[in-house]
Amino acid sequence: MAAYLVPQVMAYAGVDGLPPVAGLWAILPALALYALLGSSRLLSVGPESMTALMTATVVAPLAAGDPARYATLTAALAVTVGWCCAARAGGR
C-alpha cells in the first residue's frame, strides 16, 4: 500500500500547488484516524485525483499565487469538509 500511496500523495500535493511533503503530512493523521474510527476493514483510504483537482480549482483563484495563503486555504477547506462529513454522520 505504501509503495503507491507515498508517491501518490506527494504528486497530488503538487497538483494542488503545495510542496510534496504536505501530502505526506496530510495522509498520516487521516490513516491513523481511520484505523481507529473506521467501520470497514476492506475500504481503501487514500487521496483521489478528483479531490485534488477540485481543491486546486477552488483554492488557486483565491490564493493569488501566494504559497502560504494557498496552504492555509487548502487546510481550511479540508477541515471544513471534515466537519461537514462528521456532522452528517452524527445525524444518522
TrEMBL record:
Could you tell me which InterPro entries the record lists for this protein?
SLC26A/SulP_dom, SLC26A/SulP_fam
Give the GO cellular component terms, alphabetically.
Answer: membrane
Biological processes annotated in GO: transmembrane transport
Protein name, as recorded: SLC26A/SulP transporter domain-containing protein
The keyword ATP-binding appears for this protein: no
| Keyword list, A-Z | Membrane, Transmembrane, Transmembrane helix
What topology does the record note for this protein and the membrane?
Multi-pass membrane protein
One Pfam family cited in the UniProt record for this chain? Sulfate_transp
Question: Transmembrane residues, as ranges?
Answer: 20-38, 45-64, 70-89
Cellular location(s): Membrane
Primary location group: membrane
